[in-house]
Amino acid sequence: MAKEYDLVILGAGTGGYVAAIRASQLGLKVAVVEKEKLGGTCLHQGCIPSKAFLRSAEVFKTVKEAEEFGVISEKPSLNFIKVQERKTKIVDQLYKGVQHLMKKGKIDVFEGFGRILGPSIFSPTSGTISVENNDGTENEMLVPKNVIIATGSKPKSLPGLVLDEKVILSSEGALRLEELPSSLTIIGGGVIGIEWASMFADFGVKVTVLEYLDRILPFEDEEISKEMQRSLKKKGVKVLTSAKVISDNISVANDDVTVSYEHKGDTKEITTDKLLVSVGRSANVSDVGLENTDIQVKDHVISVNEHYQTKESHIYAIGDVIGGLQLAHVASHEGIAAVEHIAGNNPHPVEEDMVAKCTYSSPEVASVGMTEKAAIDRGFKVKTGKFPFKAIGKALVHGDTSGFVKFVSDANTDDLLGVHMIGPHVTDMISEAALAKVLDATHWEVADTIHPHPSLSEAIGEAALAVDGKEIHGG
Predict the structure, then answer these.
(1) Residues near 357 by Cβ (< 8 Å), separated by ≥ 6?
(2) Annotation marks residue 453 as catalytic
(3) 49, part of any domain
(4) Is residue 379 domain-shared with residue 316, that is, in the same domain?
(5) Residue 315, in any domain of the structure
(6) Residues 395, 251 within the same domain
(7) Which residues have a Cβ under 8 Å from the Cβ of 62 and sit 6 or more positions away?
(8) Which residue range is the domain that position 218 belongs to?
(9) Which of 133, 150, 275, 455 registers the highest number of CB atoms within 10 A of its CB?
(10) Contact 364, 424 (CB under 8 A)
(11) Are 456 and 411 part of one and the same domain?
């Protein structure tokens, strides 16, 4: 017997389950369909477990350097099994929390694979969801007034390169390692690749990064990229930019993997214990029934309007499956905006220039708004201010003075165009800059905000002052 709902959400990752909670708060009858576990990739195979690893790497590095703080800890060692156990404990606790939220919101959860059906005996329009239950029982039919597609994405590979998740890994396979390799090659110097490079280096692994473009973190400000490469080199990471991997010439022998690549006109090889492929993620648009609808797929992502509606106005799509910024917090806010529109409200769509982006490496990177180059390319006359953490007392106390904060402002109006940070705890500090963007603040309004002393956030105030050459502690 078919079950009727106001809203059915395909996918219970961060975007999907947050949308379900908001819909429940608005009084809608909601169901989510998830083929694996509530929380999706972010909770189980991405954001949370990788950050648990990064924290363990940070602690290990700190203990090895403890003598600098007057703490004597002889020959610290790493128990990677314990690292895995801690990661699993964190994930399990958060998973139970999401399950509780579903029960609290009286949201029906269907464990299985959902597909969208076309017009049928259940509905004259497309949108009925057929759920292939994980327990092997007969398919269930869900008949919703509205649908949100939140099926997320999966790791990409290179043409012809198979991820065996034993020697040739995606980020998901790397999270399941039972022991650390002694050496690792990472293909891709984007956010995920740099987080893993930083983490493995702090764990004591010999790391090489091969990046096809001319710089790592290519979507961050150029000065951020240069500082990150300098920091990674200091850790012992070898970073090769403008390196083209020859994907059909990657071989595995004796549990080692050899990668061929072109660099500066020469063809070279590198052999390591493991290979981590980090070349982006592709939207999960296959086998979910899109062919039964008028939904359009362009450049391998679902096309939507400003309200996240597909060409079928009662079917919405959010998160990685629509492209754009593939970030968990973006998917959540897109989900909320879609639900608000379904409920007849007038929500603000997500604006990319307002979204804070974070890289949880060591040092951390965080940014919001336009880079200096992007602002210039858009026709702005810009002025910038930069302030280093080495001039901040709390950074010295903390024991990490790497990096800086950089402001990019409109030279004509003083409007804040972008803020870029690299250094300790900047992923926590970026929200101040994001709020400034939302409030359409100027750099001098940020500078007028009294930042507590001593604090790392003083770098924000000083960088804001530096736009007009007024920084207090600059040398």
Answers:
(1) 191, 219, 220, 325, 327, 366, 367, 368
(2) yes
(3) yes
(4) no
(5) yes
(6) no
(7) 399
(8) 157-279
(9) 150
(10) yes
(11) yes
Distance CA 95, CA 20 (A): 16
CA torsion, ordered 98, 103, 106, 111, to nearest 10 deg: 70
Verify that 140 and 75 share a domain, yes or no: yes
- Assign 33 to helix, strand or coil: strand
How far is Cα 319 from Cα 233, in angstroms, rounded to an integer? 34
Same domain, 88 and 164: no
**pLDDT tens digit string along 160-171?**
899 999 999 999
Q: Does pLDDT of 121 surpass 90? A: no
Q: Give residues with Cβ within 8 angstroms of 210, minimum separation 6.
A: 185, 186, 187, 188, 189, 240, 243, 245, 259, 261, 270
Instruction: Give residue 39's region: left, alpha or beta (phi > 0; psi -120 to 50).
Output: left
User: For residue range 435-460, what is the model confidence (pLDDT) as tens digits?
Assistant: 999 999 999 999 999 999 999 999 99
Quick check: is 264 in a domain?
yes
Upstream peptide bond of 76 is cis (omega within 30 degrees of 0): no
Long-range contacts of the stretch 175-182 (C-beta < 8 A, 24+): 175/45, 175/49, 175/50, 175/53, 175/87, 177/80, 177/274, 178/80, 178/81, 178/84, 179/80, 180/78, 180/80, 180/204, 180/205, 181/205, 181/272, 181/273, 181/274, 182/206, 182/273
Which CATH number goes with the domain that contains 421? 3.30.390.30
147 shares a domain with 13: yes
- For residue 472, tell me if it sits in a domain: no
- How many domains does the chain fold into? 3
Question: What is the model's pTM?
Answer: 0.94
Tokens of 161: 């390169």
457, 432 in Cβ contact below 8 A? yes
Same-domain pairing of 163 and 182? yes
Phi/psi at 306 (5° precision) = -65, -15
Q: Return the CATH number at 72.
A: 3.50.50.60
Are β-strands 168-169 and 297-298 bridged in parallel, bridged antiparallel, or unpaired?
A: unpaired
The DSSP code for 13 is: B
- The amino acid at residue 315 is I
Q: How far out from the chain centre does Cα 319 lie?
A: 11
CA distance 471 to 81: 47
* Token duo for residue 156: 């990409």
Strands (DSSP E) found in 322-371: 357-359, 364-369
What Rg do the C-alpha atoms of the chain give, in angstroms? 24
With H, G, I as helix, E, B as strand and everything else as coil, classify residue 272. Answer: strand
Catalytic residue among 100, 348, 453, 473: 453
* Same domain, residue pair 11 and 140: yes
pLDDT interval class at 40 (50, 70, 90): very high
- Sign of the four-CA dihedral 222, 225, 231, 237: negative
